[in-house]
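note to self: dont lose this again. the chain is below, predicted strucutre after it. 380 aa total, dont forget to put it in the shared folder this time
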Amino acid sequence: MTAPPPDREPLRVLWITSHTGTPDSVRPDVELARGLVAAGIDIRVIAPEDSHCAAAVERAGLPLVATLPRRSLKSGVGPWLRDGCQRERIELVHMFDRLAVAAALPQLRELPLAMLMRHDRTGGVQRWNPVARLTQLNPRIDCVACTSDAAREELARRRDPASVVTIHPGHELAWCQAPPASLEEFGVPRGAFPVAVVANYRPRKGIEYVVEAAQWLPAGAPIHFLLVGAGLENRTVLERIARSPLRRNFHVLGHRDDAARITAACAVAVRGALGREGIPQTIIESMACGVPPVITDVGGARELVAQGESGIIVRRRSARAIGEALAWLYEHPAERRAMGQAARARIAAHFTLQHALEKHLVLYRALSARRDETRPDERL
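---
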């Protein structure tokens, strides 16, 4: 890491995020911020009130200058944005999602600030989409940093390719040192083959295909599914489970702050997404813990896994393909363990916090230099 150029003060950056998540899910961004501060970037943060993200920011010693109200993004934070950015001499605003853009852009569009947005999944950025025109396709946003090449390639067809970059998420194997959860408390018997399915419910997450995959598993196999995420207790999922031949082997846990520890205790992690997928942090976490994933061939998830080496990629919308992949992993324990170790090595080689940090530093300084070239000379 290099210090800022000697002829200028540290670059002042405002981070805005609406991410709430779990302690594990907010950690990568908080650690990234700490690394950027150590490299000479002066960061302020706006995060949702009463959230894990806001608490983690404060524990890390980062300035939490305002919070986003959960009910209305514009109330409360709006006055700070315009006045605070001018008072704090903010040069770059990094918005981590569309809700952050909605809160910031109306207040800041006229100020001489560089604007950066994170974009984390494929789909939903057509020019006819009014939300996309106000966010990812908004010309006031100088650059969009995508978390996958798939998202970047798609977005580059709809805005200036030079204004779109890829910065893969960063992770550290050391974050997986917490002991795995005890699955017996959820009704999973000792000696079972537990499968982690971690995702908040959306139709595009393909949870129904994962449930239906049970019919393709070996008869009598002690394979248990742990469904972790908000909204999974809905009628659609529960009715599919009730019709499953392994209905007694499904454990619907709902939202859990310890989702990563539950995954670490499993033999396999499954992601049945149908589309609009980025690089899922839940799969990064599973791979970092040595738990091999079965994922569908959508979005940026394909960039995570080396097929047959660090996981298995199956076709989307195929319960049979998911079931057959799980059956193979169950029947080949030695190969599964080797695949888990390869998954862990892949995260250590290609998705580290240091990689993400270095790319953010380069991008921040490039955007700052471009801003300095175009704004009026304040010394005149």
